[in-house]
């Protein structure tokens, strides 16, 4: 305020502030601040779970960022205030300059003073005889400049012929500034009155509430209609990545089915101003059947039925299983380090958390099928176990037995019984192992040896070393399933989107006018003097000076030939 001129009244003070608000320096500062804030909002993912932010940044920086509102920056008071000041700055700039630009485009002053003429960068003069036909001189310029606009003014004995091309060029500046203002208004409308939330709809069910993270809280909004997922389908790439997932949805409004349509990624469904996008998918509560292998030496195998996202408790042992996820396809790269990737589908797998009396909670991923190696050998059933509960800490555990074959479970226990009977003083020998296995094979299979019994023997020995190490009273393995998906939808309403599109169109038009329609001006000045007639050709352009320089000199050369013929 130190540079502010002395004010005589309050209206003058308001006028001064209005002029400063529309200054270029303030607009640049506001744009820089908005740009920096937008970069932060792009790099720092917005509206994520607060625990993710806390783990990523730690307690100190988490609270600093949270106090600044950086986790939901585009709705903070300071961001919207800066946006508002930028809109006021653009409005002030347009208010002050548009009338001047319109007046300048309409006026087309034709006269040029002698002092101003000397300052032209493009100027050429001829001295012709007094008998030269001035109308012919003017007509020569008109013929050379097809498509230009002309205005003839006579002031005293001097004639001024002005030629313009692209004189509406300043509409480009007006449209560009107006477009930015329109885009900002559209963005503000979307931030204030729009919404974007998520909805998970299991197959065969309907939902009408969306949830969204706003700042540090989770908000909920009830839609004026229901969305029902009739079916969900998905295709995969050989790598296991989703190729395309498609939902068949029905919109139910007022208890009536009003619209049924398929949606895929980037092809949303539009209803009552709300766009429904296909965003994600997951398990929608699949039916899971476990085989429970009792580890008490009884050879007992029982079953348990439950669903994903539910818990099952074994009343006998107190073991609880909390089912967290199920996937029918689990594609992994089985190539050794340094070898080309080799993807293999390991088959269906269920994830669960196991807890029980005296047991440390663990996270387990149990596969339904045994592992078949690259040579086609059955390596037996296996688990992935995480002692920390984090999926990133999964470690493979080979169980040895192929638990999809109940005979191998019987063979394992028969082998342990015969081995215990043959082992002397607790010392296990190869001869005892072989004799115990032969006796166990006869007990389970009789004289009919199964195919691949040699591999079965290796798996049984592996199980003898592995299974007793497991501290659990039961071993839950996936036996059967009935897959149910949920479709993850994102519902968005942006009342400012069409406004932004209009602003974007205006911006493109304005930029095209600015860059491809430069305003070029030429003056042909015919003025009598003592030696006859002095003819001056002057020109200027607001853009593309290299092109204008060439065009002006080409025109000068042609006019020079014309004027020479007139003089002769």
From TrEMBL:
Checking InterPro entries in the record gives: Cyt_c_bgen_Ccs1/CcsB/ResB, ResB-like_domain
Q: Which residues cross the membrane?
A: 21-45, 77-98, 171-191, 499-517
Keyword Glycoprotein assigned to the entry: answer is no
Gene Ontology biological-process entries = cytochrome complex assembly
Which is one Pfam family of this protein?
ResB
What topology does the record note for this protein and the membrane?
Multi-pass membrane protein
Q: What is this protein called?
A: Cytochrome c biogenesis protein ResB
The record lists the lineage as: Bacteria, Pseudomonadati, Pseudomonadota, Candidatius Mariprofundia, Mariprofundales
